[in-house]
Amino acid sequence: MAAATPAAAQNYNGTPNYGEINLSAGFTPDPYLQVLRAGGGYAASNLSSECQGYVTEAPDVRLYWNGKGSLPIKISVMANADTSLIVNGPGGEWYCDDDGGDGTNPLVLLNAVPGRYEIWIGTYESGDSRPAVLSISEVTNF
């Protein structure tokens, strides 16, 4: 998980493809689920050299985390295709994962501070688009 300067091709300030989410500690329902399509035509390595796959120019989802809870936040993806997960935190830090969840599904565990998080879900072929479900949860047991 390394920080990097974003490339001009990616627009992390752009309008998210699937909207904005406002969550606070103890949110319900938990997990929060968002159906979307993973993938895009931009190399995720342009966001951070540690990131893999291909994503859209703008983030898929923007999360506003409005509180500091005692539990970490688990951001994961469920898909029938191999996907990657990229998260940009409020301090400009980048979190990337490929297969940290079940099978080929990615997972990022954060001790989240209040602020804005951009989330991208990638696939492994440029221009590929696959159905996926983004899951955000405070329940960290698998």
Write up this protein.
By secondary structure, this protein is an all-beta fold. The protein has one domain: Jelly Rolls, CATH 2.60.120. It contains no helices and eleven strands. The radius of gyration is 14 Å and the shape is globular. The model is unreliable at 1-8 (pLDDT under 50).
What is this structure's SSE topology?
Blueprint: E1 20-23, E2 32-38, E3 42-43, E4 54-55, E5 61-65, E6 73-79, E7 84-88, E8 94-97, E9 107-110, E10 115-122, E11 130-137
Parallel strand pairs: 1-5
Antiparallel strand pairs: 2-11, 3-4, 5-10, 6-9, 6-11, 7-8, 7-10
Give a brief description.
This protein has 142 residues and is mostly beta strands. It contains no helices and eleven strands.
Helix/strand order, N-terminal first: EEEEEEEEEEE
Unreliable runs:
1-8
Overall pLDDT:
89
Q: Report the span from N to C terminus.
A: 22 Å
Number of domains: 1
The CATH class turns out to be Mainly Beta
Q: Roughly what fraction of the amino acids lie in strands?
A: 35-45%
> Helical region count?
0
Count the E strands. Answer: 11
CATH arch. level architecture: Sandwich
What is the CATH fold-level name?
Answer: Jelly Rolls
Residue share in helix? under 10%
Strand order, largest beta sheet: 1-5-10-7-8
What general outline do the C-alpha atoms trace?
globular
Structural class: mainly beta
Task: Let me know the largest β-sheet.
Answer: 5 strands, mixed
